[in-house]
Amino acid sequence: MDGERQRDRGRARRRRLPAFVWLACCVLPAARGETPEEAAAAKWKAELAERSRWWSLQPPKNVEPPEVSDGVWNAEPVDRFVRAKLSEAGLSPAAPAGPETLLRRLSFVLTGLPPKPERTVAFRESWERDPDTALAGAVDELLASPHFGERFARHWMDVVRYTDTYGYEWDNPAKGSWEYRDYLIRAFNGDVGFDRLIREQLAGDLLPDPRIDSEQGTNESLIGPMFYHMGEHRHGNSLMFNGIHQEMIDNKIDAFSKAFLAMTVACARCHDHKLDAISQRDYYALAGIFMTPRWTSRIIDAPGKHAAEIGELKRLRGEIRDTLAAAWTSNRAGLQPGALRRWAASNREAIAKLPIEAVAHPLAAWLAADDANADARWNRLAEAWKTERARRKAENAAKFTVLTDFAEPGFPENWVVEGAGIEQGWVPEATLLVALDGDAAVEAFLDRGYHTRALSSKLPGAIRLPARARFSGKFVSLRLAGGEWAGRLEVPQNAFQNEGPVFFDPASPPGWATFSGGDLKNGVTRVLTEIATASLHPNFPPRTGVARMGKTALPDDDFGHDKRSWFSLTGVISHESPGAPSDELDAFAGLYRLPAPKSADEGWERLSDWLTDVLDRWIAREPDPGDVPALNWMLRAGGLANDAASPPEVAVLVSRYRETEARIGFPRSANGMDERGIEPLNYRLNVRGNVDEDGPEVPRGFLEVFGKLSAGTSDFSTSGRLELANFLGGRGNPQTARVFVNRVWQWVFGRGLVDTPSDFGKLGGRPSHPELLDWLAIRFMEEGWSTKELIRRLVLSRTFRQSGEAVAPAAERDPDNRLLHCYATRRLEAEAVRDSLLAVSGRLDPRLFGRPIDPPRAVEDSKKRLFSGPLDGNGRRSIYLKMSIMDPPKFLVGFNLPDLKLPTGRRDVTNVPGQALILLNDPMVNALAEGWAGRLVDDGAATPEERIDAMFLAAFGREASAVERKRWAKAAAEFGREESVDLMGNRSAWAAVAHALFNAKEFLYVR
Asked: Model confidence over 506-516: pLDDT tens digits?
């Protein structure tokens, strides 16, 4: 299939065709009166009719399990199917496995960890009383283990090409990847129906009944669509380099079709599939579904998560306002004429060249006033203000159309907002911003509009503008301010890793940012604009070196977590020519409404009255336009008492406010999908897959072979993603249950009933037991798509309980064990090898969840954020190690960790010298052996033989035989012979024994 997906770009559109192809495609259709396109369509219809008869495209057959003469194997339907096949081949099943073998197998299959020694002993004792009861109890215990979810989440992570980074040149962090990993762990532990998981991963943002985890405080459904954003993601956008969004959509179609359908739809990017029932039209119909929504970050916190704290902050802000209003009514010393004059004089140089819109501008001008020129100087100031104001107002009115001034909460039509910072962020004019730290009680007075930090800078927010075609006017400008890595980004055709993200400088005053549609080319049909805090910015942190907030650069080792990020939006306009509105100088309207003063002193009194009037209007809750700059100047200049420690009543309220705000957690987010306010789009076909050669639009739809929802037959008012998810998560399709059941069979038995779990097509494998696969798929759906019920059925079967000891005829007639004549011994996966080392040595930290941990690295590269972590990952399981595309954990790679760029249905298994060298020389292995030895010398064992028994029980899940006990005790003595320390206390000797056990085949394989 890989060969089918090679694109010959840049070649001439017309190619020389063999004579017989030219005859069939051109001459014969013409003779029949058909166009080449009509002939090709007819040819495909005929091929589709034939290919749709393929076994995997047929509905599962509800067959009865066959009766078998073997009474032990006749109880469980799974066993009846398997036993019947064996009998047809003249074979018998292997003998049952012993209790120690079976428990170790169960423990690794269900949790990926070896059984604890005490559990092995208890199981063996229970087995001697009643094997069936012992087994059922162990299965229930392991299925209830929190480590079950870790084990099966890691399996699914292979399928969906899980990564913590996006690869290519910079390997940027994939926002929310670990949240998706933890979501999977919770889902498998909670046995969420797989039909629900299908819907959540494909369309969790669209579900009318989102699944809320009250314990975690998360909206689980919103995490699911992170599925789309695993694997590689290109930098830049197709306006810069054609082909970027086409590669991104190819990644999603490939992962989707392999994961849920076991079909290689991506092979049809360039042409109709050579062998399977997939047309090129199908590929582009799916592309429209997946490209329609925004690819952006979503807040995954549960709705109302911090409602109590938010309500308390609002109440406290109101009380602080009332208390300060009372204090400022009685204490206005800083606004008296003499105080103003002294302030201006002491800041003479700083205010000398202020522009006309600066609040201190008239104070600077009045410093030079005397009684002789007071009248004329004031009139010049007033006339300059009046003239400039009239000019600015006229120019603004002529050039700019106000779309909203936020006099009331709300946004223009088709604007989309997200996050509590926006939901709680609208404020009327001159609302207090309470200071969250420091000596001041108030940080600022806020303009009316939206401020994500109005209550707390932890609250997230995003504003997502509609496509430019839906705006009136050539340009749209927004009055913005922000800080702490809030920013704006332009996203052409969902390329959210676009170059050049802009982050707000908190030192800059609010300013106008202009957005224009620009020229669309290279298949780009829309450019979407977002303004977002750090947690909702899908490209934060961007590649190293480009994130700057004024003069502050984001450190290379900053991964963007836990930012007090904020932005403000206080105006929206449209216009036809470049430019931005000018400040209309409203702040001075109250200053120049009276006749000119007759003396310098009277002028300072006039300035004092002007500012006092502004304060009085604020106290009366009747501020005028322009009052906010004056109020903020009063705060900065010391005109208003603003001490968080006094008066006492203010100090108490501010302290309570800060304590309440501290209880708000930082927001949690993940990259996902957002379809709100979006016009659905149909994707244009690329002729022969060539991104430089667009064909016609293809209506959105599903694969034609399934009929329902296929392109041309569906009339989606939105993308069609929810319809697709409901179809695949329902009983009306033949694929998804069968594909998942086969995956679970592989995870339990080591090989699927179909041994190519991500390809049920012509080049894939055929089912070894087709009736059993169908029967399981139907039962799986009837039992609520329960993964745990399916697994319980499989591991309690006689098929699973077989030993790995095949008799001679079976080994000859069924060399690949496709008929399941025994339980095949297999090498542990990379994670299970490493996790076993941690568990057996006593170093394993059993905690679940959390941000990824950097693996140890010999060489760091800060420019690509490749840093070295603790040698043993602080004892955490391998699932929590960072999966960086550029540099995945080398220990795991050595044991066949799959290529993180690609969906992997079945891992490669190799046995190469490099693996032996890893176990011999890896610093982590040696350190864990030494750590185990440190625990052994304090275990209280009386003899070397007693300790060997304990080590075998921990490492292999069984006691040593008499011969092994003697041999290994002798080895321990040999390892310690050059030291004078008593053998039982010789740490280096027992470290050597531990290291040798780690290198034993029995440690690495499960029987």
From this structure: 999 999 999 88
Whether 13 has a pLDDT exceeding 50, the answer reads no
User: Is the predicted pLDDT of residue 41 greater than 90, yes or no?
Assistant: no
Q: Which two tokens stand for residue 834?
A: 């490493």
Distance CA 133, CA 141 (A): 12
Packing angle, helices 146-159 and 99-111, rounded to 10? 60
Question: In this predicted structure, what is the pLDDT of residue 26?
Answer: 44
User: Measured between alpha carbons, how far is residue 70 from residues 67, 87, 94, 822 in Å?
Assistant: 9, 10, 13, 16
CA atoms within 13 A on the CB side of 404: 15
pLDDT digit string, tens, across residues 324-374: 999 999 999 999 999 999 999 999 999 999 999 999 999 999 998 898 889
Does the pTM of the predicted model rise above 0.90?
yes
Structure token digits, residue 324: 């300060």
Query: What is the Cα gyration radius of the chain?
Result: 35
CA atoms 154, 158, 161, 166: torsion sign: positive
Q: What DSSP string runs through 94-125?
A: PPBPPHHHHHHHHHHHHHSSPPPHHHHHHHHH
Q: Is the pLDDT of residue 6 over 60?
A: no
Residue type (1 letter), 550: G
Cα separation, 648 vs 668, in Å, equals 37
The full 3-state SS of 368-437, as one line of letters, equals: CCCCCCHHHHHHHHHHHHHHHHHHHHHHHHHHEEEEECCCCCCCCCCCEEECHHHHCCEECCCEEEECCC
Single out the residue of 790, 703, 808, 796 nearest to residue 753, CA to CA.
Answer: 790
Q: Which residues pair with 165 in a beta bridge?
A: 173
Q: Is the dihedral of CA 584, 586, 587, 591 positive or negative?
A: positive
For residues 113 and 145, is the Cβ–Cβ distance under 8 A?
Answer: no
In this predicted model, what pLDDT tens digit does every residue of 156-183 receive, in sequence order? 999 999 999 999 889 999 999 999 999 9
Whether 527 contacts 520, CB under 8 Å:
yes
Q: What are phi and psi of 552, to 5 degrees?
A: -95, 125
Yes or no: say if 550 and 506 are a contact pair by the CB < 8 Å rule: yes
From the list 851, 843, 913, 917, the residue with the least C-alpha distance to 875 is 843
